Amino acid sequence: MTTKMFGAKVPRVEDQRFLRGQGRYVDDLLTDDPRLLHSAVLRSPHAHARIVDIDVSDVLDVEGVVAVWTYDDLAGAMAEPLPLLIPHPALTHGRTQYALAKDEVNYVGEAIAFVVAVDRYVAEDAVSRIRVAYEQLTPVVGIAAARAATSAVHDDVPDNVGARMEQENGDARAAIARAPHTLTLELDVERSACTPMEGRGTVARWDPDTSRLTVWSSTQTSTGVRGCVAAKLGLDLAKVDVVTPDVGGGFGVKINHPWPEELLVPLAAMTLGKPVKFTEDRREHFISSAHERAQQHHVEVGFDDDGRVLGLNVEFWHDHGAYTPYGLIVPIITSTQLLGPYKPQNYRVAFESLYTNTVIVTPYRGAGRPQGCFVMERTMDAIAAYLGKDRTEVRSTNFIQPDEFPYEHGLVFQDGRELTYDSGDYPASLAKLKALVGWDEFEDFRAEMAAQGRRVGIGLACYVEGTGVGPYEGAHVHVETSGKVKVATGLTTQGQGHQTAFAQIVADTLGVRFEDVEITTGDTRKMPYAVGTFASRAAVMSGSAIHLAALRAKEKALRIAAEALEASEDDLEIADGVVSVRGTDASIDLGTIAVLSNPLRYAFDEASKAATQFSVGDPGKPPVAEDDEPGLEGKDFYSPPRSTFANGMHAVIVETDPDTAEIRILKYAVVHDCGHLINPMIVEGQIHGGVAQGVGGALYERMAYDESGQLLNASFMDFLMPYATEVPTSIDIDHLETPSPLNPLGIKGAGEAGVIPSAAVFAAAIEDAEGFPITSMPISPSELFELRLAHTDEPHPTTTPTTAG
User: Fold this and answer.
1) Whole-number Å distance between alpha carbons of 674 and 747
2) Whole-angstrom Cα distance, residue 264 to residue 610?
3) What mean pLDDT, rounded, does the chain reach?
4) pLDDT at 620
5) What per-residue confidence (pLDDT) applies to 792?
6) Which of 36, 191, 532, 591 lies 20 to 30 Å from 662, alpha-carbon distance?
7) What is the mean pLDDT of residues 589-608?
8) pTM over 0.70
């Protein structure tokens, strides 16, 4: 195809609407419907307790209260546990919660009762009147407590281990034992959370005349929500529509489904015969949505005099919270993506996924990769420090080389397929990064800063990201008789620029004007089958499906145009929505072809374009061929053979204040490879946003639980996050394009690129500035200050070294 639009820095067409305050989010819907009811949820104040009794008698007489549900009011599938979305053989003790707690609560924030009232204020007042008698149980908070197993989250899982999993390529422990040098590291990453601008929200409307349910949800998977709602409420799938309106951020938390409210709101709408709305407040999001990141890692590595890794053995412990609705995706990703761009000759990884009496864990932008990158990059830095080598030299020694692709790691990835990297050029990326950040000139800069009494450090981190995970996405492309092109794909949009990037693909593939393409996402009425937006998969999956669907529409357009113009299809070309015969003035626009595509059609007067008569076409041939159907449209699905692997490298220069231990960012550089770029401006925007989120995860954000399981910082007054003053004012970005051979556009995902190496790159830079090891993230100024005190009179023992022999 021509590439008039593909690869162009086209401004996002969706932005003006949002910038002018014209977005339409879940909480904006049905506000003018006088029948609309509102809901509120009673949530557990205890991390672990048995429910002895629930008394709702004081609620029923409150003016404005319409209905109250507890677990005892649920029946059929609604009374069963919520689905375990991604089962895995290693998840031997998977557990999911109920829509409303049955008998026991296992984290602060678990839903116990659901109240519907005439407005949210009445619903909240009613919730406060519900009386629950509890028998408190001992909570398990944090990985250490879960491993100690002196108490159990679930009685039938006494050791708190939901899953154990191990993979190995070669014999890592034997290789380490034989290696000339070995190191041992203990590395921790604490809990954080997505905290999007918009929390969860659901609206449902039931039409008793048609027995049709419409649900609007702030979700990352409208199709998944549709399937769950239909199954739990006993409805035909065809009778349920799920629409995702504008979404104020997802970042992973909204891929989990169904949330209790996504079932309770439709249940209430059906029962009461009126539309019902639920909008989550900020505290609810902190205590009842999802968290991620918390893992502890034990690393043993053996290497030679050049720093080449001969054996790598990693064991880690993953905190998955009170339940496991999303299975083992996060720790599986850590265990496989930990390898990054490197090729250890022998690798073993084993993890335990542990229950704690805290909020559940689902993917958060990066989804296990930031932890894996932190482990591998800290290991590379430790090897370099031990050998006295430049950190880039040790990495270069271990890189997979460009001529080694496709590269097989001998492991199984999150999609159940072999972990095989498709393309990349890691040495070229590193050369670009060093030039971008001024790596070779940094020591001169350090000396200059030291002369001014300033302390600076530099760090880098490399990563590989599996993107475009299957199983499929689909698309429908329809050319209107006006010449406009309507495109529908099932995955949802949370700000990624889909309306722009997907329109660029259609414009080039179909040969139409970019301005004539309209994209719809996340509406099961227009595309009933889809998977969802997560794991940097939208461009690869829906982009490829849209390209294939547009090709089908183009093939049909050329076939019809060839007949109308009495020309060979090979002599035709499409540009700006007009099909022309090369070398002649003969042409026909796509709108007219759309008219001709319908054998029972209105004929149009050429001058006025007005309908003049009703036509049945040529009586000498059948109106519709056996392999065709009316309309100028194309529909197709794309299913990849396996995931495609993007990659990148970040570098940062920081300054650490000698008195306050404040950490300031002086320079940030990124080199990124996501294959062919659809829109470089959108990719760079994704990187900027990811870096900002990564700064938060590395230096500010954490979930602070006390020993009783209470979240102490469940508000934006207490949960620290970076403002514009803490995020780099500019980020130097360079691109490398190594196309993927796995999809028709040669693209890879880019959505999580900015956040994956953040903990690793900041740890490296701070360690370089301070001269002592940084082994736990995030790190605050107060923690850095305490580390300084602890290492004042100590040498720089980056790790625990052992020399073989």
Assistant:
1) 6
2) 51
3) 94
4) 58
5) 86
6) 191
7) 72
8) yes
User: In the numeric block, which tokens belong to residue 296?
Assistant: 């502890």
Burial of residue 763 (number of CB atoms within 10 Å: 0-12, 13-18, 19+)? buried
Count CB neighbours of 89 within 10 A: 8
pLDDT, average across residues 661-689: 96
- Among candidate residues 308, 268, 256, 187, the one with its CA nearest the CA of residue 773: 187
pLDDT digits (tens, 9 = 90+) for 509-525: 999 999 999 999 999 99
CA–CA separation, 165 vs 331, rounded Å? 9
Instruction: Give yes or no for a contact between 465 and 414, defined as CB atoms under 8 angstroms apart.
Output: no
pLDDT beyond 80 at 803: no
pLDDT of residue 611 exceeding 50: no
Enumerate the β-bridge partners of residue 573.
580
> Which residues is 421 bridged to in the sheet?
407
- Burial of 539 by CB count in 10 Å (0-12 exposed, 13-18 middle, 19+ buried)? buried
* Residues contacting 60, CB < 8 A, separation 6+: 68
Q: Residue 622: its pLDDT value, please?
A: 57
Structure-token match 């040098």, residue found: 181
User: Is cis: bond before 471, omega within 30 of 0?
Assistant: yes
Residue 283's contacts (CB-CB under 8 Å, 6 or more residues apart) are 714, 715
**Distances from the Cα of 213 to the Cαs of 191, 207, 208, 226, in angstroms?**
37, 6, 9, 10
Print the SS3 string covering 486-504. EEEECCCCCCCCHHHHHHH
Please report which confidence band the pLDDT of residue 804 belongs to, taking 50, 70 and 90 as the band edges. very low
Query: Which residue ranges form the domains of the chain, and what is each CATH number?
Result: 33-137+200-279 (3.90.1170.50), 366-469+642-783 (3.30.365.10), 472-638 (3.30.365.10)
